[in-house]
Design brief:
alpha+beta; 2-methylcitrate dehydratase PrpD; 60s Ribosomal Protein L30, Chain: A; 2 domains; four-stranded mixed β-sheet; 20 helices; 8 strands; about 45% helix; MmgE_PrpD_N; MmgE_PrpD_C; EC 4.2.1.79; lyase; MmgE_PrpD
């Protein structure tokens, strides 16, 4: 890896293309270096992971809405169209709308992969737009499963490299501002586009996907699931415009009125962005990790610790009156974003939206502690949130920042990087229960790391309510053969729901 020095430049400095971050990102996208076998294997895992959470969310309101929008649009004339999760594979739509619908389905339950460093990310969000474009142009360009794998590896590499270096949330910019450029670059790799075209697409994608973090603050709305899908849709459109010769603001990052100067750390800012050398394998996907539980990633380890404590102290933790307080000593991010440090009263409100409870570690830890388990639907149900003993204990849970856990959270050493913390439970009789956890059980360094078997089981478990057994096996067969798929097989990278699975689900009407 090499470090690209990023800073703002006055217009009269005339920063050359070769010195611009967007040009360097385009260089990564055009590098024909072969993929390592473990990277290919992990790409397959993440395609399965995305489909699993999409299947689980297929009847939820935002997903139904996005799917109905997508299917209202015909296939564009430049290709054969792309598939939409939940619809028959023969029912295709324009690729940007397929990226939109599938992106919402993947993101709705906050249940797919993550990478956290200077910024937050869900790099699996790169997959829907890349697959959609591949399906659309498979016949025209002879695209294969191997091309998809290469595009996805680029998307992961660039988003994760940006996340390692550049904080967006510090300036209240939503994390999808790193996703637009990475998805555009991934599509560029998929299609074998030249560096200039990818450069222009990256600039346009960045310019159109910067937005505030209010989508993840306070009363969190259904837009939370739409935000990365929008970035994917914008990436598809940016690539289309760049292929037609249209240009972007230059230099997009470094300009005196650019992203760094006015949206991030200002005119005097500088960053060191790690990027692969030419000829160096793209391996960033291996630094990311998926979720065993449907919750914000910083909650994963805490759910596992709560399950452990539930099993070890059932008589004590069964009665909230026995507990005086529960304090989670954790990282800056966990405390200020999903903890009591956010000062969001909604995080303690039993009437809060699912999206809000998903970002409330006091709620999540309470329920996991009481139940000894976590379920993507039942744990968020209104009935569960309104249980009197839950509300009593919930209001005793607070978080505090611990400098050591913050340091480990931001460490670039994967071996010590941590997303958990230490819990101190003060009992009414004066006793204490103290325990800690560094990473989730499913993390590569956790107690039960996810491998292919766990990804496949996650898909079977989350899809069984909506897909026939035959459709589950068909999808798993196609997905696991991804690197060998021919152009005529790419349309199989989707699933159709079982007859009757969506009966009673109301399809909303809009403009289209």
């Amino acid at each position: 890896m090499h470090l690209h020095h990023l800073r703002t430049h006055r217009s009269d400095e005339n920063l050359a293309r070769e010195g611009q971050l967007a040009w360097k990102l385009a260089s990564v996208a055009t590098d024909p270096v072969e993929l390592d076998d473990d990277v290919v294997d992990m790409v397959v895992n993440r395609v399965i992971d995305n489909a699993a959470v999409a299947a689980a969310s297929i009847a939820r309101g935002p997903v139904v809405s996005a799917r109905s929008q997508a299917l209202a649009h015909p296939v564009s004339i430049g290709g054969d169209g792309a598939t939409v999760f939940g619809a028959d594979a023969a029912r295709r739509t324009s690729p940007e709308w397929a990226a939109w619908a599938n992106g919402v389905a993947v993101r709705e339950l906050d249940f797919h992969d993550t990478f956290l460093a200077a910024e937050y990310s869900h790099p699996g969000d790169n997959i829907p737009p890349i697959v959609a474009v591949a399906q659309h142009l498979a016949a025209n360009r002879g695209l294969t499963g191997r091309d998809i794998v290469r595009g996805i590896a680029t998307g992961y590499e660039i988003q994760i490299d940006l996340v390692k270096a550049i904080s967006l949330h510090k300036h209240k910019i939503d994390h999808v501002a790193h996703l637009g450029p990475s998805a555009a670059a991934g599509i560029g790799t998929l299609l074998g586009l030249d560096q200039e075209t990818i450069f222009q697409a990256i600039g346009q994608a960045l310019h159109t996907t910067t937005a505030t973090r209010q989508s993840r603050k306070g009363e969190i709305s259904t837009w939370k699931a739409h935000a990365p899908a929008f970035a994917g849709k914008m990436a598809v459109e940016a690539v289309d415009r760049a292929m037609r010769g249209q240009t972007s603001p230059v230099p997009i990052y470094e300009g005196e009125d650019g992203v760094v100067a006015w949206l991030l750390d200002g005119p005097d800012a500088s960053y060191e962005v790690p990027l692969p050398e030419v000829g160096e394998a793209k391996r960033a996907i291996l630094d990311s990790y998926t979720k065993e539980h449907s919750a914000e990633y910083q909650a994963q380890a805490w759910i596992d610790l709560a399950r452990k404590l539930h099993d070890e102290y059932p008589l004590i933790l069964d009665d909230p009156s026995r507990i005086e307080s529960i304090v989670l000593h954790t990282s800056h991010h966990t405390h200020y974003v999903i903890g009591s440090g956010a000062n969001d009263p909604q995080k303690y409100d039993p009437d809060a939206s699912r999206e809000t409870l998903d970002h409330s570690i006091p709620y999540i830890f309470t329920v996991a502690l009481q139940d000894g388990t976590w379920n993507h639907a039942e744990s968020y149900s209104p009935e569960r949130a309104h249980r009197a003993d839950t509300i009593e204990l919930w209001n005793k849970v607070t978080t505090v920042e611990d400098e050591e856990w913050t340091r480990r959270y931001h460490s670039n050493d994967i071996a010590e990087k941590a997303f958990g913390g230490r819990v101190v439970i003060k009992l009414a009789d004066g006793g204490e229960i103290v325990d800690e956890i560094a990473v989730a059980d499913a993390h590569p360094l956790g107690a039960r790391p996810f491998a292919r078997e766990q990804y496949v089981q996650k898909f079977r478990t989350l899809a069984e309510w909506a897909l026939t057994p035959e459709e589950i096996e068909r999808f798993l067969d196609v997905a696991q053969r991804l690197p060998e798929l021919g152009p005529d097989e790419l349309g199989g990278l989707t699933f159709n729901v079982a007859p009757g699975a969506l009966v009673g689900v109301e399809v909303p009407e809009g403009l289209f």
